Structures are given as C-alpha cells and as structure tokens.
C-alpha cells in the first residue's frame, strides 16, 4: 500500500537541473568551465518574485529539503519538519528553493561527475570550492529562476555560513539572512576534527589519491570513520548520555573488541550507512569549505564588523546551548559584528539537549521563534 | 658533550623486571599463566616501608616516570616535573615506584611479548585486561617490594582510576589515594571517542586481526588517526585556540588537501610520532580498560557511594576547569561518594587552559596543592 502524503507536506517533488556554460572563477584561482546545479522548489513564486527563500545545506545535505520523490518514498527531505504548508517556513506563502552545492554528490557537478575534458570522473581534478564560490553559483541559479532578491537566505551550520556570505557578496540581493547554529569561522578544534576525518579518508588505501572511481573501489573505511567522528561532534555529551549512557548491547560484557555499548553500535551503524551512499571526495571538499570560511580574514586583524559593513540585510541568528561544535558564543560574535554595524538582528539562544544537530530537530521553542521571524518576513512580502 | 643531570632530578635510573609465575585470574575469566612487570624506583624505602608511593600511568604511559635512562638521554620520565628531590612528590622523602601495566608495550607482558605457549607474539591472544586486573598485579609487585601498605597511590586520568580501585580492592593497603583529572566511569561520549579510535585501528588493513607482528607490518594509519583524535580530546578548545588559532602553515592558502593550518601540522606530527613507537594492540587494550571501568556498576543503580563503602583511605581529588574529557563534574561525583561515606577528602578545582593534559603540566596552583597534600602525607610518615 502506498504511503499517504500528509497535509502539511509539500508532496511529491521532482528535482530539476540547471546547466551553466559560463565559466565560474573560483577562489582557488581555478575555473569550472561549465557545471550543473540540481535543485528543488516548493510553493509558488509570486508575481514580483518577492517571496523566494533559498535554503543552503550543511556538510552532508543536498537539494532534497522537503517532501518526497515518489508516493512510496519512506524518506522525506532533510528539513521536511521545517518546510511545508503551515510549517514555520510556510510553502503556502513562500517559494522555497533547495539546491545541491558544487562539489556535491547528489546531482550537482562534483568529483564523481564526468569531466567533459577527460570522459572520466573528475576525482582528484575537481577543484577545492569555498563558501564564496557556492554563493556565486547560487546567484547564477537565482538569475536563472528570475529572482533578483531573496526574501531570505536560510541555513544551519555550514548553511548558515552561506547565508552570512550572501549578505556580504550580494548585499542588494538578500533581505533577510537566517543563520542557525553557525559560526563566523572555525576554531582550531573545529579544524582539528575536520583534519582527522580527512586524514581517515586520504590515508585509506582505497582512496587512490581521489581517483578511486576508476579502481572500482570506494574508501569506505575512511569515510565511515569520518562520519563516526563527525557524529560525536553533532551530539551533546549530555544528550548522548541521556540516550545511550552506558547501556550495554548484551546483558554481560564480552571482554572483546566487539560492540559492548549501545553507543558503539549506534555510531558504527551511522558510519556504515553514510559510507554506503556519500562520496568521500565530496566529504573532503565540504570540510575544506568549512575550514576556509573566514570572511573577516582579509580585514584588519580578522575584524568581522568590518567584513559585515557591506551587509544590508536583516538578520536572524539562533544558537543552541548544548551545541559545543558551534557554541552560542560563536553566534554572539556574529551578533556583535551586526550590532557594530547597526544592522537589524534578532538573536535566539535556544535550550536544547540535542547539541549541534538541534538545528534539524523539531523543538517547540526553536520552531516558535522561527515561525515568528518567518511571519515577519511574510508581512513585508504580502 | 653529555647533558648534565639537574639538581632536582632523580638522575639516571635503571628499569627493573619482576617476573611472576603465579597465574593471574583476570576479570574476563581468562588467566595469565605468568608475566613480567617492568618498574622503576626513585628515592629510598624507609625502615618500616611506610614511605612508598605508587604512580599509576594513563593510556600511553609507562614505568619511566622520572629521571633519565642515561646521561645523554634527551627525554626525561613522563612526570619528571612532579617527581624528584624537592619536587611536590619529593624523592628525598618518598620511595616512588612507577610500573608499566599488563598489556603495555614498554617491557611488561603485553600483546607484543612472546607467548611462551606458541613462541610467537601474543597478538590477538592477549586477553582484555581491566583496571581491577592491573591493581591486582600491582598488589603482587607490592608484595615483591616488601610494601604492605602504600603511603599513597597516585594517578591522573586512567591512572586516577587505578588509585580509586586500590582504595576498594585493597582498602588496608593504601593510606591515601590521589585521583587527578579522572572519572568514576566513562560517559557515552568518552566511549564513543574510544570506539572511533579503535575502529581506526581494527579496520586498518595492516591490523591482521591483531597478529600484524607475523606479517612484518604495523597498523600505522589506524594508530596515527587514533592518536590524532585522542590529542584533540586532551586539549581544551580555548587552549588550542590560544596556541594555534587559525595560524597558517604557509603565508597563503594552497586550496589543496595538504596541511594549511598549524593545528593540522601539529596533530599529524603527534600522530606520526606516536604511531612510530606505540603498539596498536596496547592502545586497544588501554581504551577498553577505560571503557570497562565502572566500580559502581554491580551496586544498586550504579551507586558509587556503596562501591566506596569499602574504602578506608584518605583522598585527594583534583580536576581542571578546561578539561572536557573528564570535567570537574566527574571528579565531584567521586567527592560526593566519598563524603557520603564520611571518608576524608580534599578536593581541588584548578584553573587551567590546558584541558585534560593539564595533569601533566607544571602549573603553580596545581603544584602548590599537590605539594601541600604530599607534605601532609609525609608528616604522617615521619
């Protein structure tokens, strides 16, 4: 029996592909001669194209933000709880766009795509891309969709960095930036975790310098470790303690290297699942985009206030108290720089036991403040 | 030119080996038929053997706690700043013993030792050992050295767990337990980090199910990753930020997967160095000993107060505020259980930017409280 589509779902969506032939100059100095961006849209663009909202994804995200791909689809989009008819980001009001970023592995041009110059997957030849490059490519997608100015650019974590970058790269094209569980730049500890994850992939004998596609193998071991490690940093110590504690997988200790504790079983499962569908080169690229993000860097002593002086948007910044990956203090750095520039900013410091992952969870307080802010955006549109 | 020996050094020390032929029954149900323990001693045992202090090592530690092995030795023992003539643990007053635990790779019987039954390294046949097993083996070493009762058993991190275990396993044989930067049991997050480290080793193609010795290889990749990851958890976010921040290795970004940030270079160096001398099987065993440690487990609902009801020692418990691996709250759990039992306890909550590693660092406040507590122990001896 086919599963029904809930009333508050955007329903069945079909991903679309936009092909771009104009070369894209990248931060690294390289150029992408041409590329595809895969995207999905939900809701209807109004006559003056003033109700468009761009959703930027985080490390392992993609264009499938809400709804299902077919009636039997058991998996809904990654932010389906937030986006749909009557939901905080209400598709009865807004035209919502999700895309897969360059370098991704869900349809947009990335390392596993065929390089037209060689007829082989890009692999190691795919250039490093930055948050700025993504925002540049997203601006081209905006042109293609006839959106001169986004009502809002919205993202959590690495997605929040893109929203922040939009406000600086294209100040005229964004009315609101919604920056959730994010940071103005990574800390040494953040970079350190990313580097361990990358080293796990880069030193996997099946990595073959990034050209594993031609060898018929995948660096599963490395990607699995990277995901296991990442997962620890997405959850809070307390949240993990509440959910797993020291629960045993079996009644008694086995005194072996097999799984003993539930938390081990959970992490290994998450690692195995992820390694089965995600591309290791994409994982490397996404972590590098995180590391390099530092819009204040070229201003005196990394002055974020000066970097944001260009911005004209209004801002909604939210952080979760148990998030130790991008703790509330990191969001407050953003808020301070916005206040320094007398830019309108609403800041929410939200209680949650879910750590960094809280930005993906349905939580009454979080959803209430999101809804209130989106209502405000809609009043300006309507 | 040979390096001089400082006045406050214990000088040149020679490791000694104690061989035991009496089988040791292990927590796992296995038995070690016979084994060696390698140890070092500093200072002189007094006539009534009342001034003996046992130093228990942590994950990657060993018997070489203080001094040098030869005049040109550039590396001093791992706690040389704490132990020596006039130092907080004063070898003019105390007879100090350091040993390498069973399962180690510095001379005590471990996975890389020759299994007398097969003539080959134990490898995968070496049994899992627990903190309790270590304490049992340390008690036998005490007998051998003629020490009926330790003036103190001292340790940081996993070493602190051994001090705590001594107070429960052999309440009559320990007057003081000095438990630094430790915890009564691992949290789910602690176990999770350990499991990622283990999975890195276990899935390294060079691991060969633990019997890599016969294959002429070493699971260097896995051990390197494990150490890199461990290192992140030993340092504090702030301390790492102060030391490395976003400092670049080169003037400009290379936009590649090479080292960009100093923190990456530092971690990879630490990983490479460690993987060059430490045994991967020992690393696995030490992390399992951490995971299994939970002396309260067999009491009603994991009641630590009931577990410590057997103890008779006086306690010194210390924690460091930036230690997020074993945060001060974990030490306070121990303190609470001791207070519940009306056992004498001194607790120090020490400010430090060095995270978990602070217990190995020379810090005025930390050394002052250690010195004061050791002075008190000495007054009882003298």
TrEMBL record, chains A, B:
Compartmental location: Cytoplasm
Protein EC: 2.3.1.46
Domain of life: Bacteria
Binding site for substrate: 227, 357
Site, Important for acyl-CoA specificity: residue positions: 325
Top-tier EC class: transferase
Catalysed reactions, as listed in the record: L-homoserine + succinyl-CoA = O-succinyl-L-homoserine + CoA
Chain's role: Transfers a succinyl group from succinyl-CoA to L-homoserine, forming succinyl-L-homoserine.
Protein name, UniProt field: Homoserine O-succinyltransferase
UniProt gene name: metXS
């Amino acid at each position: 029996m086919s599963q029904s589509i809930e009333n508050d779902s955007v329903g069945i969506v079909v991903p679309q592909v936009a092909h771009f032939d104009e070369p894209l100059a990248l931060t690294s100095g390289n150029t992408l001669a041409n590329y595809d961006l895969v995207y999905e849209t939900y809701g209807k663009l109004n006559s003056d194209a003033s109700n468009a909202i761009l959703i930027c994804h985080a490390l392992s995200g993609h264009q499938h933000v809400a709804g299902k791909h077919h009636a039997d689809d058991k998996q809904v989009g990654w932010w389906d709880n937030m986006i749909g008819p009557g939901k905080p980001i209400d598709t009865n009001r807004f035209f919502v766009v999700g895309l897969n970023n360059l370098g991704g592995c869900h349809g947009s041009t990335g390392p596993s795509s065929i390089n037209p110059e060689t007829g082989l997957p890009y692999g190691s030849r795919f250039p490093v891309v930055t948050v700025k490059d993504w925002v540049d490519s997203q601006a081209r997608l905006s042109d293609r969709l006839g959106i001169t100015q986004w009502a809002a650019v919205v993202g959590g974590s690495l997605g929040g960095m893109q929203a922040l970058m939009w406000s600086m790269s294209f100040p005229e094209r964004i009315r609101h930036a919604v920056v959730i569980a994010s940071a103005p730049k990574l800390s040494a500890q953040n970079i350190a975790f990313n580097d361990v994850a990358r080293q796990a992939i880069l030193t996997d004998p099946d990595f073959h310098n990034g050209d594993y596609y031609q060898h018929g193998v995948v660096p599963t071991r490395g990607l699995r470790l990277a995901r296991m490690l990442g997962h620890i940093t997405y959850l809070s110590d307390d949240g993990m303690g509440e959910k797993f504690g020291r629960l045993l997988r079996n009644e008694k200790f086995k005194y072996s290297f097999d799984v003993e504790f539930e938390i081990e079983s959970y992490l290994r499962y998450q690692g195995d699942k992820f390694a089965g569908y995600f591309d290791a080169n994409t994982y490397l690229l996404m972590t590098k985009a995180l590391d390099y993000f530092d819009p204040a860097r070229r201003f005196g002593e990394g002055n974020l206030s000066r970097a944001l002086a260009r911005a004209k948007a209004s801002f909604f910044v939210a952080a979760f108290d148990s998030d130790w990956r991008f703790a509330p203090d990191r969001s407050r750095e953003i808020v301070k720089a916005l206040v320094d520039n007398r830019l309108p900013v609403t800041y929410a410091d939200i209680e949650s036991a879910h750590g960094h992952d809280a930005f993906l969870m349905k939580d009454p307080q979080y959803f209430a403040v999101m809804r209130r802010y989106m209502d405000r955006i809609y009043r300006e549109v309507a």
